[in-house]
Transposase
Amino acid sequence: MKLTPVGIDIAKAVFQVHYVDSATGEIVNKPIKRAKFLEHFANREPCLIGMEACGGAHHWARQLTKMGHKVRLIPAQFAKAFNIRNKNDSADARAIWLAVQQPGKPVAIKTEAQQAVLALHRMRQQLVKFRTMQINSLGGLLTEYGEVMAKGRAALDKAIPAVLAKVAERLPAVLIDTLREQWNGLAKLDGQIAEIERRLRQWMKEDKSVNAIAEIPGVGVLIATAAVATVGDAKTFKSGREFAACIGIVPKQSGSGGKVNLLSISKRGDTYLRTLLIHGARSVLYHAKDPSPWVEQITKRRPANVVIVALANKMARMIWAILAHDRSYKKDYVSVKSAATVATT
């Protein structure tokens, strides 16, 4: 059965819908209010519905899927390529309608539980960012009065009591009290971050997939929970390399005439998960007591940053393999394909 393609530009209040009526050939491009959106598709025959993977898209994708429609969430940059004129709701819906008919890799529709875990990660990321801003702000303000402290939280906690006592002799009490309150507020942020991490660890204990990939060296509670929630269904990716490319830790390509040059990593996809993987790889490289032979060999040939990114790439592939094939981590595991390749050579 051929599904009718439909492009939807979602918004907070008014959605724009674009499709071609299969019976009359009429081009339909009209706005639909939020309250009437699901009602519009309730009694229709199954459609191929395309939406940008943005805020609220996963919720509407789940609702439309329950009605029997096939939904594809399209990365915004791919849909944008089909909008060649002015940007407005009508043009965006038409661009999505064109994009959904093209072959490509859609974004996996996440469950509410997976979105909940990612929400915890986003809130933790925001708190960490705000804590860093507070630390830098305190250091910068005290520098205005000739008190320079070393960088970092540990240096701030060690030096600021004496610094505040010293500048209190010549600065207004209202400023000293405010600076002290801001410093004490860092402990509250620490507590909020720790509580979110505790909840993530609790979810980790209850999820089999998270426990499986947490056995990989360099993968802790943050990477494990973020990876499982971000990937959704690992089988939507054909290979580990495709998953690594999705999060932007494979080389960019540039070339023509059959000659392709490999450049730095593409940095496409999920920035947060890519950052976590690189930090995890760095911890393995610098702190592992028994690094693998692969790490030792590549360390002799490449600079440290290149080794870190290569190890992050390998970690991403191992995460995909464990999730896609539902197996546990084995340190000395050799794939069947690799063994066959060695045998033939």
